[in-house]
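Need a sequence for this fold. Nothing fancy.
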């Protein structure tokens, strides 16, 4: 259900990495850094080289977007949500509910789903409020999708890409 928004966010995050690597490859003083394994190292060299053209907010955006990209690509959706918050995005609950089905039967499943739908106390937990291990990857994926986190991540990545594009223009001048 949320594979397309996830794919778009992952692609936008990958574009930021590619742009950082391409920029490093264009700048003679940074060319040796373009193929470093860790993007953090490339980002660090770029921010040092272009220090006078970057605000503290720009540097923080690049840093947090790099971390957000890792969280999205590695399906750590709870941590990705925390990074979105650090980037200034409002992170609301997707109101995805986790229900326990004590006995696998049509009657038990029907009752558990009905109780959760009717919000019977103790019949469910909101995934956003569960511990990392309780929500599960699928629950966290649904939560992130329902809450619009993938679209927010795409917007953050596009902002970071614009910063890198601006630096590429500085390098041309």
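Here you go.
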């Amino acid at each position: 259900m949320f594979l397309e928004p996830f794919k778009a966010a992952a692609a936008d995050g990958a574009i930021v990495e590619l742009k950082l690597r391409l920029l490093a490859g264009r700048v003679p003083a940074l060319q040796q850094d373009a193929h470093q394994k860790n993007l953090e190292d490339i980002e660090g060299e770029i921010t040092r080289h272009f220090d006078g053209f970057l605000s503290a907010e720009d540097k923080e955006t690049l840093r947090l977007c790099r971390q957000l990209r890792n969280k999205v690509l590695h399906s750590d959706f709870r941590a990705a949500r925390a990074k979105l918050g650090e980037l200034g995005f409002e992170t609301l609950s997707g109101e995805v509910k986790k229900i326990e089905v004590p006995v696998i039967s049509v009657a038990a499943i029907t009752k558990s789903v009905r109780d959760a739908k009717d919000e019977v106390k103790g019949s469910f937990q909101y995934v956003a409020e569960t511990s990392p291990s309780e929500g599960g990857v699928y629950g966290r994926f649904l939560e992130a999708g329902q809450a619009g986190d993938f679209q927010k991540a795409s917007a953050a990545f596009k902002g970071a890409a614009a910063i890198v594009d601006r630096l590429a223009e500085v390098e041309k001048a």
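For context: The longest strand covers residues 97-98.
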